[in-house]
Amino acid sequence: MNWKKQERQEYFWNSLCRTLDLINLTIADKKNIIRLRELTRTKELWLDFVMGENEHDQSDEGWQKYFYSFYSAARKRIL
């Protein structure tokens, strides 16, 4: 979202494509089958936020908090 605010469209689109790649890979991973509903809903809401009408009145801060919890959990598993 920083790239979008800075009007760096090329960087914004590249990061958006990478985000969607990661979400799609996570959805495709069979070990996440029990989380499929949440993952597909996350993708839907994310796309609405960055490219759509933001019908659910989401914010940058809300998404940062949501994804930070996954980052934090992954980091703990690595260390």
Your description of this structure?
The chain is mainly alpha-helical. The chain has one domain (2-78). The protein has helices at 2-5, 9-28, 36-51, 60-78. The longest helix is centred in the first third of the chain and has 20 residues, at 9-28.
In short:
The protein is mainly alpha-helical and 79 residues long. The protein has helices at 2-5, 9-28, 36-51, 60-78. The protein has 4 helices and no strands.
Count the domains: 1
Helix content: over 70%
Supply the helix-strand structural class.
Answer: mainly alpha
Q: What is the typical, i.e. mean, pLDDT?
A: 89
Bulk shape: globular
Quaternary structure classification: single chain
Tell me about the largest β-sheet: none
Radius of gyration: 14 Å
The proportion of residues in beta strands is: under 5%
Order of helices and strands: HHHH
- Which stretches are poorly predicted, pLDDT < 50 over at least 5 residues? none
| N-to-C span | 28 Å
List how many beta strands DSSP finds: 0
Number of helices: 4
Provide tags for this entry:
single chain, 79 residues, mainly alpha
SSE layout:
Layout: H1 2-5, H2 9-28, H3 36-51, H4 60-78
Helix pairs in contact: 2-3
